[in-house]
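name: query_chain
kind: protein
chains: 1
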Amino acid sequence: MRVELRFMPASWLSRGFAVSERNVEVDGDEPDGNDYDELYRDTADSGGPPWDIGGPQPALAEVLDDGVKGPKVLDVGCGTGDLAIALARRGYEVTAIDISRVAIDMARAKAAGEGLTVHFEVQDATDLSLPSAPFDSVFDSGLLHSLSRRGGGEVDDYLALLPGLAAPGATVFVLAVSLEAGHGWGVTEELLRAGFPEPEWVDTEVEEIDVAAETGGRELVLLGFLLRTVRAFDT
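structure:
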């Protein structure tokens, strides 16, 4: 049976992208790992979910050559691994996690196909266990606004983990869709800044950006933010 769609399902909205040809009502909770697994399987033959654009988000791609501190880098909510792989190509020691085992399996296959070493793990970003922490750079491409949409205490749980994941002097990058994109969800600059307060975080900048998506052979652009902040040396 074909469902008449107005918006993306909540599972797709978790990464913040809009109108799809295959859709269901937005109402409902964010998916767990098994729901994401189903989503990745269902879209594997049609280009993947909208946030899977075949490479890093353009706003993040711009920082890869001169804005990344290394050698150790973490990609939280890595999906099928395009950002993690782009970092590994540049010689960084990359750890990447996602809640979907299907996405991680796809990411591992991509990295192996290029002969690259990336440490991929299936983990929940609100309950991480990473012996290789802390990292010199941390990337979040769409995860924070996913947790924000879910509500509850998951945003707080995730943000509470970040100081332990980022080494003193490390840079954290957070890419998120803006509430002003007009789809009834997203984050504000105020919410982003509130998540990284002084004195624990310093030199925080929030830039307005475009967030890219692809669905049904169409390229989509949403209003978004890129936050950059530095873990303070002394707190």
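note: Confidence is low (pLDDT under 50) at residues 1-31.
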